[in-house]
Amino acid sequence: MGVGRLTTDWISLPLVALPIFSSLVLLAFVARLSPAAKEHIGGNIRLVSLVISLVMLALTTAMFMGANFIGDMHDWTGLNFSQLNYYERYDWIESLGIHWTVGMDALSFPMVWLTTFLLPITIVATWHEKNAATYFPLILLMGGALIGVFVSLDLFMFYVFWELTLIPMFFLILKWGGKDRKYASQKFFIYTFTASVIMLLGLVTVYFLQPEGLEHAGKWTGRTFDIPTLIAHAQSANASGEWFLGESLQKILFIMLMVGFLVKLPSVPFHTWLPDAHVQAPTGGSMLLAGVMLKMGAYGMFRLPLALFPHAAQHFQFWLLTFGMVSLVWGAVVCLGQTNLKKMVAYSSVSHMGVILIGIATMQPLGWAAALFMMFAHGIISPMLFAVCGAFKHHYHSMEIGAMRGMAKHSPWLATSMMFAWMASLGLPLLAGFVAELMMFLALWHFLSSEGWSVLWMVGPAFVLAITAAYYLWSMQRTIFEGGDETQPPESLHGEAVPDISDAEKGAMLIMAAFTILFGVMPWIALDMMHDWTLDFFDAFLIPILTGGGQ
After folding, report:
1. DSSP code at position 488
2. 503-521 and 432-451 helices cross at what angle (nearest 10)?
3. What is the value of pTM for the model shown?
4. How many CA atoms lie within 13 A of 538 on its CB side?
5. HEC profile for 174-198?
6. Dist. CA 176–CA 66, nearest whole Å
7. Which of 231, 344, 355, 486 is the most exposed place for a label (fewest CB within 10 A)?
8. Residue 92 exposed, middle or buried by CB count within 10 Å (0-12, 13-18, 19+)
9. Average pLDDT in the 126-135 region?
10. Which residues, at least 6 apart from 77, have a Cβ–Cβ distance to it below 8 Å?
11. What tens digit of pLDDT does each residue of 255-306 get?
């Protein structure tokens, strides 16, 4: 695998170790303090967390811009499927073929940058969160674990960071969640951990059944956890006319890995943990959960089963398309019956994850690029929606949509932010979500035409999305702009003064809105690297295998 090696490791220490170890040190320090001392020092810890997150954002932005101080300049467009930037490998457990191997390509870098972008935004948006001394270190820990998933190029590392993300999210829901937080946190953990165990069994099977003596193999086992090595070998084996590891086993392993990723995404019917988790989670937890954590599922699909088992992916193409269609339609339809604002946003996320699955299922470069860009665009839009939900809960003491009546009169900033976020989520032109949805439908049309399938496959999703958009507009008009006389504030306030959002909340929402517009007007900033990556993946990898390989 091609590498761009630097004299300084700009991934391991500043992007992974810094947030994780900083958060652990802060949590260990706070654990020894009294409640009063924790309250006193909370502001300082919040500020430290913000500074660390801004340093990480500055570094990833410099990586994208090609700043001189980080060494050799790298171009994220035009990268080969197998080419990595900022690649580093260190010996770890050599006897088992486990190495600390990190790197970024055009698949992982957008997710890394998105994570570093959302960390300071989340901190600012939840600036006044209670128990700040422990809350903000957990946010940092979550960010470091998420980045670890995206930069890991070793199966063992990948799984460790994959599981590590569960811990801070579990405690964020359990300690800062709503009245049903115990149920939601346990359901979240059980669903995702169980799926992860199934995925682990698949990864272990790949490890033990791979040929002995591959590069970076362990001294004792003769096998390796190195992802680039495994992909390169699988590519060679599949292209030779055979199924890597055999036809039956490849199908079984594909299913085992996909279960872990489909639950994390999540896809219908594995989605039921998500609305409960979102409703009970604090605002910061929901922002990171929807913005980045869900995307781990789609990222894992691209990184492992689609690369290792392309024949199996083609074999299960219809089922992937079905899961995507059902998720898109079901998530949108269920939204129509929700009275809780957070639950409505959660089901809209399920619908958008369906768009990602459809893009993958088309097995078209445009569809895959659409899926990658939807991951990125939704990663900005959905946190803004949950920031709006959090602000509404904080100021109006309710999550019931009925309590929003007349909000435009009482809270114009909050009402404007909510309308913008919903317009972005619905795919309004010139906003980031529109680009991804348009690309997905074009890829789906091309796929259906090439396969001779009926275009009626497109009618259902398009009709449901149109009806859902109309319902959202009608409901927003009815609740936000109608009723709610200024002399009669919502009942949830119990006679308190009618509020509007704080300066910190305004700043966070304005930044997310600005980037939603930026990537909608100039999508090529992120889309070019994604499209180039998918084109090379298909040209050099998938097309030769699927057209000339064994069936």
Report:
1. S
2. 40
3. 0.94
4. 15
5. HHHCCCCHHHHHHHHHHHHHHHHHH
6. 39
7. 486
8. middle
9. 94
10. 106, 528, 529, 532
11. 999 999 999 999 999 999 999 999 999 999 999 999 999 999 999 999 999 9
